[in-house]
Specification:
This protein is an all-alpha fold. It has one domain. The protein has seven helices and no strands. Helix 3 packs antiparallel against helix 6, helix 5 runs antiparallel to helix 6 and helix 6 packs antiparallel against helix 7. The protein is globular and about 50 Å long. It starts with a helix and ends in a 5-residue tail after the last helix.
Length: 215
Amino acid sequence: MRESRWCAVLELLFVPLAIGLHAAGMIGKPKLPLLLLGWLSMWLRRTGWRQLGLARPASWPRTAVLAVVIGVVYNLLDIFVLLPLIHRLTGEPLRLEAFDSLRGNVGMLALLILAAWVSAALVEEMLYRGYLLNRATDLFGRSVPGWMLSVVLVSIVFAFAHHSQGPSGVIDNAIAGLLFAGLYLASRRNLWLPIMVHGVVDTSSLVLLYAGFKP
């Protein structure tokens, strides 16, 4: 246990380092090095993604329907309630200039939706809710306080990984991170519900941006 905790400390210290190097423009997006770190860690500890939640859910249809409902409701709440409050708090809107060329561009919309499901929904949930959340609880303990502290810290890390969206984007992604972590735990640590909800939220957001609507 002592060795596992020291390994967890070293792995978790690498996370802000990778995000900081990305923010400084020294490396690309930190997801790939962090995901490789996760794979190496699991290989050394003789575990796998299935044990972290990438296993078949109890019901695919029920999970999919629930994901659509939660994703759409959350996105509406985010656009019409949370983002206006966050904007009032920070005085800055979301920085979405990277999506300016998406408006009316069907080809880009299709490409970004594919990327949203693979690079964002699947990879980010494997990384943040699957790998990092569980490694944090290896450090803080798998008690209720340990899980709560881990959820908060990993959600903050997830938020700062989206620093390019500005202060409002950081706060907004912290809230989304809390939602995805809550869904992961409510699903008995199965990743497919947060993966699908993440994908629905991103897809609906991209469709709105394609139509010319910016929150």
